């Protein structure tokens, strides 16, 4: 039994346990291994900060083919639970030539779809050899633009979730599971 932290008390219920997450990540890593094993490009896992950092760390350890990593940071959310819809690049990919790179964008969760549709277009225009997207979680019912990820751990209902990298107002990222936040926490 894991220790209960002060943060656990703000969780209504656990949606995905640590063990379940581990299985989802293992499956995605196996698919990526298989899809890129014969590629002549260089595989780059591109972590979208900050929410994807825990997923990225676990995923890269389970991938067995050679892989480079890099990071970008974008913002689309304010401090609340609704997307502003405007994507701003806060940390860019500082590489001059993307033409040898098979990029897999690693995202924590897809909501409106605006972040990943913007980023994939940005990377394709930047000259990447190929661009695919990988998300641990997806809320398809929230989509505002057409977007389907190439790899997805699990589709979830329209609930605001935290943990395993996902935050509310920068908190709860370090929880090892994905949980649904008590609505009274963000109604405060
Ligand atoms: P999109 O551009 O609307 O698809 O937004 C995706 C981003 O919104 C994710 O990278 C998260 O940072 C954030 N987000 C969306 N839903 C949630 C949630 O339930 N919990 C925490 N962050 C979320
Ligand atoms: Mg994010």
Q: Any guess at the CATH architecture? A: 3-Layer(aba) Sandwich
Query: If strands are numbered along the chain, what order do they take across the biggest sheet?
Result: 4-3-2-5-6-7
- The amount of helix comes to 10-25%
Q: Stretches where pLDDT falls below 50 for ≥5 residues? A: none
- The H/E string reads EHEHEEEHEEEEH
Strand content: 25-35%
Distance between the ends: 30 Å
CATH topology: Rossmann fold
Task: Note the main sheet.
Answer: 6 strands, mixed
Write down the CATH class: Alpha Beta
Number of beta-strand segments:
9
Count of DSSP helices? 4
Can you give a write-up of this model?
- This protein is an alpha/beta fold and 188 residues long.
- The chain has a single domain (19-156), classed as Rossmann fold (3-Layer(aba) Sandwich).
- Helices cover 24% and strands 34% of the residues.
- The protein contains four helices and nine strands.
- The strands form two sheets. The protein has a six-stranded mixed sheet with strand order 4-3-2-5-6-7, with helices on both faces. Strands 1-9-8 form a three-stranded antiparallel sheet.
- Helix 2 links the parallel strand 2 and strand 3.
- The mean pLDDT is 93.
- The structure holds inosinic acid and magnesium ion.
- Residues 48, 51, 108 line the site of magnesium ion.
């Amino acid at each position: 039994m894991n220790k209960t932290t002060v943060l656990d008390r703000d969780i209504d219920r656990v949606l995905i346990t640590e063990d379940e997450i581990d299985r989802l990540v293992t499956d995605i890593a196996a698919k990526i291994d298989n899809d890129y094993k014969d590629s002549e490009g260089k595989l780059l896992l591109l972590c979208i900060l900050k929410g994807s950092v825990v997923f990225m760390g676990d995923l890269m350890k389970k991938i067995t083919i050679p892989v480079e990593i890099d990071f970008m940071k974008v913002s689309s959310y304010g401090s609340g639970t609704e997307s502003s819809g405007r994507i701003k690049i806060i940390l860019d990919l500082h590489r001059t030539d993307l033409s040898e790179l098979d990029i897999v964008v690693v995202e924590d969760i897809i909501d409106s779809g605006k972040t990943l549709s913007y980023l994939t277009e940005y990377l394709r225009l930047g000259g990447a050899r190929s661009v695919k997207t990988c998300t641990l979680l997806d809320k398809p019912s929230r989509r505002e633009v057409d977007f389907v990820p190439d790899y997805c751990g699990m589709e979830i209902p329209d609930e605001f979730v935290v943990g395993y990298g996902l935050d509310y107002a920068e908190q709860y990222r370090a929880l090892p599971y994905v949980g649904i936040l008590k609505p009274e926490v963000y109604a405060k």
